[in-house]
Amino acid sequence: MENWSEKKSVNNNLFLQKLGIEVPVICGAMYPCSNPELIAAVSESGGIGMVQPLSLVYAYSIPFEEGLNQIKSLTTKPVGLNVIVEKNIKAYEDRMKNWVDIALTKGVRFFVTALGDPSWVIEKVKPFGGIVYHDVTERKWAERAVRLGVDGLICVNNRAGGHAGNQSAEDLFKQLSDFGLPLICAGGVSTSDHFIDSLKMGYSGVQMGTRFIATTECKAHPDYKEAILRASEKDIVLTKRVTGVPLSVIRTPYVDSVGLEIGPIAQFLFRFRRTRHWLRFLYNLRSVRAMKKTNLKGLSTKDYYQAGKGVEGINEVLGANTILKIFRTAYEKFLAGE
Ligand SMILES: Cc1cc2nc3c(=O)[nH]c(=O)nc-3n(C[C@H](O)[C@H](O)[C@H](O)COP(=O)(O)O)c2cc1C
After folding, report:
1. Domains of the chain and CATH, by start
2. Angle at 82 between CA 277 and CA 5, to 5 degrees
3. CB of 308 closer than 6 angstroms to any ligand 1 atom
4. pTM summary value
5. Which atom number of ligand 1 is nearest to the Cα of residue 33?
6. How confident is the model at residue 241 (pLDDT cuts 50, 70, 90)?
7. Is 74 exposed, middle or buried (0-12, 13-18, 19+ CB in 10 A)?
8. Omega cis (within 30) before 253
9. How far is the centre of ligand 1, averaged over its atoms, from the C-alpha of 24 (Å)?
10. Is the CB of 160 under 6 A from ligand 1?
11. Does residue 246 come out as left (phi exceeding 0), alpha (psi in the -120 to 50 range) or beta?
12. Does the C-beta of 49 come closer than 6 Å to ligand 1?
């Protein structure tokens, strides 16, 4: 037990010190909910906001570099970049590489990779002193990422919004703790009690998505925020219909009417590596458009509101700075052993 707490505090220091932040809270990248004001507000309040480049460029129509400049005009504190490393068409991969290059020139040093092989990101950012954390849902992917040289793991559990994992936060921690790297709990954290519980489990910090959608700074449509406030844990379902793999969304009459599964042809094509790759691309393209419409413009004919089970603890729209203030106080008490 003593070893654990020693390890925990070292990791905590490592995560906070390496990132240069004060509160171990990441505002996770969210397509299409990551807007410059939200990212900057979280960083400015002592946590770290993640830039989701597709969100910036496609959802908000802000050229990437301009978006980073906008964020930098709102905060001088560190922000991170989400890099989706999923194999894709070359033009997309080249654009992602270019975004990483631009981010490095703008001083971004924290990168969270997701959905694939993070090696090219590690190679690119390490000479600049960059730090790479990789999103994982199970040990198999964590082993590969650790072997490749990531600095930490974002442990996505079965309560997360977006693409959820299939294990509890506790089980995931137990599976991954022997790597000796900082582990960040992603999924179902929406209150300071959840946050402290995660730290007590041994996590070095938390990554939150759903909680930050219901903030004054987030540009998601009020209908979306309202749906989060109204929803309880049992309203969260996993649908494959948006991206082809389980996505955590709030149950709405639309979700009920179309069901949660993909059709038999898509199921068949998902079985083979090559067709799966193309199908994922098509699904992603379609979902990028659909999410932009429903999540930002509030259309109500095809309501897909991505959210995790943390909705249970979200009862009002708050300023991101208020959330960070509450979490900071809880963190200080935790450190003081209160
Ligand atoms: C609306 C929404 C969009 C998301 N988009 C992304 C994304 O583009 N890239 C990514 O790595 N994670 C994405 N996530 C996952 C979040 O970064 C974060 O890990 C997750 O929301 C944590 O779970 P929580 O929602 O229960 O707090 C998304 C989550 C949500 C709710």
Report:
1. 2-220+315-335 (3.20.20.70), 222-309 (no CATH)
2. 115
3. yes
4. 0.91
5. 1
6. confident
7. middle
8. no
9. 17
10. yes
11. beta
12. no
